[in-house]
Inverse folding.
């Protein structure tokens, strides 16, 4: 994520500088639109790759495409190619950056073992991303102060090319089942991701809120450019410095959020919304660079807190199998919103001035984001919860242990809870099997062909053989004491173990072990 963010922000700032020097604020706004609109249209398709293909390959290809686009821009700037050609390659670069955050988000959801761990990892992710977004503009500022923009893209090319190679070689292979890679299948999955967001209230609310926030971020990109050139009378290097100040604030936000893991996510988002908007009411009146940098850092703190809260809320509110596709819809919405924000502010600055536009953006942004954070409070409260003790019990089953936390939480919510007295037959040999049983307390006796096979005490599980092989029960299980069971129906059980290749393989290994005939004496 560090190289991704550093390359993304260095390239972004440099394209804006090239565009502004070529035609002012309106040209910079146009550059934003040209980069973001194609990316917004393709985001659901590009991001869906993280849900279907090996994640290490998705990341390697993404960095390889970024390297190719950055190399092309380098040659275009050196050769004084038409600015439209630079814009086109910048659009390709932006499209290729979509896959990385979606794929990383999918990885985090897949490996997190609790909601607090997921938030903690998102804090780390935000810190690393902020470090990259600080390093990228800072290096761009240094390079732009002593060299031409082509030198920045030469550096981006080198970093992305090396990262593509390292990611392809060093990241572990995915623990997931193979799926079809046909174009039709990929497009269908992409559409299903969009439809899922549109029809599911919780992720839809988060996506719309983040879209509103990204409209403000798009506006900030242009405001920083205008403040640097018009208000401070400086050049492109100061634009990069303001982005550095913003990134420093995001780093501070990650450090603060690591102390606030017990907070409600909507509360974190609300605080971030305030800090992302209120400084805009005064930043246009400050004439000293150090003061503007301090306010830019405060804006970054707000953005970081809001991003951590909303990202975690989005991951928790959507099905884990939809994570990358939901992020595709998020990216699409965000990029369209950022393009609208940048284009609108560019036109407003040219027509009415920097100060008036900045104050107006602050007032409108505060009203929208604070209202949205209140809405997300009810969204967070509506999230279904699962008994942590039950989830821990499900994870004690050997072939369920590798499942992502959201899958186990979903299983916990789908479980049927039963209390069975001593002496009752829970399953009967020869009958069709429709349920998987997790013994939470008590003891049972297992008989096959009339012989006692085992006496089992909690925690334990049984019933997978008939479900996996679609056959009758191979044994009779009778309670020998009062027992409590978590009962999972066949469809939910089969869906869960199919989420990872490890759980699928281990479940069949356990089932086949029970079915294997005894070795002769």
């Amino acid at each position: 994520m560090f190289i991704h963010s550093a390359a993304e922000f260095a390239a972004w700032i440099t394209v804006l500088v090239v565009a502004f020097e070529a035609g002012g604020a309106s040209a910079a706004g146009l550059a934003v639109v040209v980069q973001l609109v194609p990316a917004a249209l393709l985001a659901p398709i590009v991001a869906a790759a993280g849900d279907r293909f090996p994640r290490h390959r998705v990341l390697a290809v993404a960095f390889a495409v970024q390297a190719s686009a950055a190399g092309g821009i380098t040659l275009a700037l050196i050769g004084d190619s038409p600015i439209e050609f630079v814009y086109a390659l910048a659009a390709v670069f932006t499209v290729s950056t979509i896959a990385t955050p979606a794929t990383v988000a999918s990885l985090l959801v897949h490996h997190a073992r609790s909601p607090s761990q997921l938030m903690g990892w998102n804090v780390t992710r935000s810190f690393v991303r902020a470090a990259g977004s600080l390093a990228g503009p800072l290096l761009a500022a240094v390079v732009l102060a002593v060299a031409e923009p082509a030198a920045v893209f030469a550096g981006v090319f080198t970093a992305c090319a090396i990262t593509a190679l390292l990611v392809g070689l060093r990241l572990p292979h995915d623990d997931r089942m193979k799926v079809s890679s046909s174009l039709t299948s990929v497009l269908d999955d992409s559409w299903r991701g969009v439809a899922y967001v549109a029809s599911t209230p919780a992720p839809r609310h988060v996506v719309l809120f983040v879209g509103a926030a990204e409209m403000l971020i798009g506006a900030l990109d242009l405001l920083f450019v205008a403040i640097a050139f018009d208000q401070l009378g400086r050049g492109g290097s100061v634009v990069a410095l303001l982005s550095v100040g913003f990134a420093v604030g995001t780093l501070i936000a990650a450090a603060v959020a690591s102390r606030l893991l017990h907070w409600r996510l909507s509360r974190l988002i609300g605080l971030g919304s305030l800090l992302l908007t209120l400084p805009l009411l005064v930043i246009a009146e400050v004439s000293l660079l150090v003061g503007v940098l301090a306010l830019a850092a405060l804006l970054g703190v707000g953005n970081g807190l809001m991003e951590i809260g909303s990202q975690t809320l989005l991951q928790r509110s959507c099905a884990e199998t939809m994570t990358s596709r939901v992020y595709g819809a998020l990216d699409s919405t965000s990029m369209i919103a950022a393009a609208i924000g940048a284009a609108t502010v560019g036109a407003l600055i040219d027509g009415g001035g920097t100060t008036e536009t900045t104050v107006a953006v602050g007032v409108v942004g505060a009203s929208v984001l604070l209202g949205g954070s209140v809405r997300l409070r009810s969204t967070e409260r509506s999230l279904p919860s699962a008994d942590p003790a039950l989830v821990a019990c499900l994870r004690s089953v050997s072939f369920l242990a590798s499942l992502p936390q959201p899958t186990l939480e979903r299983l916990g919510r789908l479980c049927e809870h039963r209390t069975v007295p001593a002496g009752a037959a829970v399953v009967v040999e020869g009958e069709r099997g429709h349920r998987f049983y997790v013994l939470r307390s008590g003891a049972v006796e297992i008989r096959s062909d009339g012989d006692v096979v085992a006496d089992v005490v909690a925690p334990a599980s049984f019933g997978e053989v008939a479900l996996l092989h679609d056959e009758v029960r191979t044994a009779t299980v009778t309670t020998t004491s009062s027992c409590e069971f978590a009962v999972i129906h066949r469809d939910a059980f089969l869906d869960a173990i199919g989420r990872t290749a490890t759980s699928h393989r281990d479940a069949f290994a356990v089932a086949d072990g029970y079915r294997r005939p005894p070795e002769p004496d």
Observations:
- The chain has two domains: 2-381, 388-515.
